[in-house]
Design goal:
Two copies of one chain form a homodimer. Chain A is an alpha+beta fold. The first copy, chain A, contains 13 helices and 16 strands. In chain A, the strands form three sheets. In chain A, strands 1, 2, 3, 4, 5, 6, 14, 15 and 16 form a nine-stranded mixed sheet that branches.
């Protein structure tokens, strides 16, 4: 790159007001009191949101297609066959969602393309923007459905045949809203993929920092534990004769906290759900059902955490004279993002003199699916108080402007880079 | 007592078959599948049960009156004004009750009186049998209502005005079943009171023993704890940033077990109820509501247990950054039974060569109310597997025979004793 081009790029900034305007405009579709959004995938509000975003994509000159799982893919024109630098995210929300989750990655990506176009700057590689279908998975599971099919990890036919609680299929609902497209899924294979997203956690906000580069996503293990003890009178049953399912549930819950500390290095561990029976003040509980949520970015350590949990449970069951059955509800592998792309993000931040924090994502994102087919990473900006999936979700406009700037800088750098590539 | 009289008394045994027959006959009224009973106080089935038992009481020659709270009191005739040795219990049951709880104390007492009458033996003091109203307190609270009013610890007018969930009063329902009597409550003041009861706990059954002498009843402290933390994502929230209401609930639950062990000497402590919100696998719980049930026979130690619990809670709330509000649901004093009466029970067992275990009652009984107006104690016999308030409640006929024998021997000894009295 010439010095002139470099100076022009340094002067280039996305239009923060336009981003804010588009976030606000999109949030009115399915808008909730308090500023939130309910735009469930494949509903009429989803259609209205898609229509709006697709019209913006066409307005900035992208060639837009809809694929057979409803993903909306726009590519800068006239560069057929060249692998683009792709941005994007999703615009569907949970039932009590916010206006930033997903939407920001799409609208900021759009603004990157528009800003470059307005400045008359073209990049060596083309750019692309994608709106993935049904990331939230509220009515139709699995979540991240559009990116899963895009990456080839879920078969198109299977995804289309998924039904909701009322027996409606994905295919029928996609067709009903006019987004059962005819483009083949995944036809545009990106050279690299970058997703800008709100953190949906408290780390940046608490630290008073603005930028995170996401190095990895946690693997997740969910186990349901079913404890069967003996119900008895809380007054007449001596302590040493008890087989107390509530006590066993509590022992596991406190162990899980110690386990996180022992494994360390980012291990998180949560008992979020406890059901007791008969659940009365003066009766020793007969049954307890609890869930354990373990997450780690290192699969070997996650497996070690599971192993220690199971050993603890088996020993506790013997000591307390109860039975504990367990059922695996979810088990996913951690994802390591591309050091090439994370390096580009870090360099972009450095050029702007912005500190950037290396982070792990505790939530799932479309980028983790795309990471299996192209070098991928994510940029995080703060969520106030870590709140997300809630109408109170909020990110400061100044932070959005910084996130969009680093997205632009990273994408341009990736698009113009011809050095050692591939993560 | 002469040697002759002593030998006659040693040969005297209640009629075990008659006791069994009467237990079975009474259990058919409000009978449940599986052998249990539903005879809620002041219902039509209660009336039928009362009619049957009152007819048996008259058949054995007792002068029977019904007092103004519905207690049925029968006294051996012709001894007006003399303080009797009183036996008795209750015949109302919980909704899914057994046939032994309460009923045994009444029917065995009846058999003691009938056995003595058949043998032509009279005692120095008269004997009395009482059927107390509404011991279970299912529809109308407080429980032990009849004996509470009998002992003067609850005013008659207040008891009669108590309403059930439908606004019906005790007075109206007692009147409807024909048991709003006209005898003054507590007019017959016993010289001593003895209640035979099933243990309703596992101690005798597990130990393979048959007889218990109840020395005391536990004082009870029930506290509800309301924990308010912060709900957050189980993946994105680092362990050190959590204010996890489920963890706090679990810490208290495991502490309560340690507390019982530290206080010792019969301290029991139970968390039987835990409610979490939102109670989901992947969300750190915001709210928890738990109950703590503490019981001890020593009031100072019970207060010490409460004190340590509160200190632990206050410290934990600070450490975890949550608030914990507490509400006292129940607080009763322990009851110490009369050493005079427990001594008589122990002597009676010794004379029969029966080992007898000193016990604490973890459940409430009419005897604890009567203990405030007369020397009182209780005899326990085993509950199979400690099960009670359940159709599966069961006590072996051979154990019932032994219990009734010791009741008879104790009552006769009390009725004929003129040595150092008064506990």
């Amino acid at each position: 790159m010439t010095e002139l081009a470099d100076r022009r790029l340094l002067a280039l900034a996305p239009n923060a007001d336009r981003i804010q305007y588009r976030l606000d405009t999109l949030a009115k579709i399915g808008g909730l009191d308090g500023g939130g959004c309910c735009r469930l995938a494949f509903t009429d509000d989803d259609r209205r949101g898609r229509d709006l975003v697709a019209s913006w994509m066409r307005d900035v000159g992208l060639d837009v297609v809809v694929d057979r799982i409803g993903n909306i893919v726009g590519v800068t024109p006239g560069r057929d066959g060249e692998a683009p630098i792709m941005m994007g995210s999703h615009i569907d929300t949970v039932a009590t969602g916010g206006r930033y989750d997903g939407n920001l990655g799409v609208i900021a990506g759009l603004d990157v393309i528009e800003t470059l176009k307005e400045a008359g700057i073209s990049t060596d590689r083309p750019l692309a923007l994608v709106v993935f279908s049904n990331e939230e998975g509220v009515r139709f599971q699995p979540d991240m459905m559009g990116s899963l099919v895009y990456a080839g990890a879920l078969k198109l036919d299977e995804a289309l045949a998924v039904t909701d609680g009322n027996g409606r299929t994905v295919a029928a609902d996609l067709n009903a809203i006019g987004y059962l497209g005819d483009a083949p899924v995944g036809a545009v294979k990106p050279h690299a993929f970058v997703e800008l997203h709100i953190e949906q956690g408290p780390v940046l906000d608490r630290a008073g920092e603005v930028l995170g580069v996401v190095e990895n996503l946690q693997g997740i293990a969910w186990h349901e534990l079913i404890i069967k003890g003996v119900s008895n009178h809380a007054g007449t049953t001596p302590m040493e004769m008890r087989h107390d399912a509530a006590f066993v549930a509590a022992e596991i819950t406190t162990f899980v906290r110690r386990l996180a500390s022992e494994i360390g290095r980012g291990q998180v561990a949560t008992v979020g759900s406890i059901h007791l029976h008969p659940n009365l003040v003066n009766v020793i509980a007969r049954d307890a059902k609890i869930t354990v949520d373990l997450r780690h970015t290192d699969d070997a350590l996650l497996a070690e955490a599971e192993h220690r949990l199971f050993a603890f449970i088996d020993n506790l069951a013997r000591e307390e004279g109860v039975t504990i059955d367990r059922r695996e509800l979810v088990r996913t592998q951690p994802v390591i993002f591309s050091p090439y792309v994370t390096g580009m993000i870090r360099q972009a931040a450095e050029r702007r003199g912005m500190p950037v924090r290396s982070m792990t994502s505790g939530a799932g994102h479309d980028a983790q699916m795309i990471s299996t087919i192209a070098p991928t990473a994510m940029i995080f900006i703060p969520s106030r108080d870590g709140i997300s999936h809630n109408p109170r979700e909020y990110t400061e406009p100044a932070h959005i402007a910084i996130g969009a700037q680093i997205l632009l800088d990273t994408v341009v750098a990736l698009a113009n880079d011809h050095t050692g590539i591939q993560a």
